[in-house]
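Researcher: Here's a chain I'd like modeled. Treat it as a single chain, no partners, no ligands.
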Amino acid sequence: MESITNVDVDKSKKDVNGIILILSCQKHKDTRLKEFSLSKTSYNNWEVIYVIGDLLLEKDYMLDGKFLYVKCEDSYLHLLKKLVLSIKYLRELFTIKEGILRCGDDLVFNEQNLIKFLHEKTKKYDYYGQAYNGKDYRCSIHTKNEVRKLKQDFFMIDYYKAHKDDFLNPQHNLKNVNISLYSMRPHIYGAGGVIYYISNKACETLIRHMESIHYNILHYDRFTKSYPYTIEDCAVSFIMYINGIDFIHNWCFYDTPHRETIARHTNKFK
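Model: Modeled as a single isolated chain. Structure tokens:
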């Protein structure tokens, strides 16, 4: 596949059933991705695409073979921004029939179960994954006011205490960011960020919402009086629920004895 930028996209977009989107970063391209377990570049007409941020890219994005480089920060803090921008650009490059399977870059797949899940006849919900508490989140039952329940989450603060060098990386754009100021977020549950599915409807919702806040992951949300966008999987749940999209839980996604489990989470090179 030739390199493609946003200024020279072929008018005839490739038709695919979906995208298997592998979120990664520059420091893992020669480690995790070299050991990544998928043996094919396409499954059931689902294209495998690896996404990496490049803040110094001259164009908005570049597709080089199976690697999509997106002009954005390549940091852990900006993972939500990278995800939604990549979805936006993939929709420019491909005509996507179903949606996107969002995956981390440290998974070992059961490819037979992956193929079963991707089959057109397999029921997939708009926002579909594996919750830590094993519960669905139905917006018809939970009111919007419930996302105002807040939690002080030190996950990202603790991460950067262990990765202080990231503040010096120009690709991360963190030089003047005080992570400790952004610890309050909505206390909600949804899909664990290891692997989950989002439909075209959910993708459109993510893009529209992120455009409304100018892709600023440090945006202060006045409704919840918190910072909902700093932890990617929590942020996706927030955006889905505030826009009326249910989360449906299934234990089949990762790290369970379920006979149809799609992947194992290795947590390599953390």
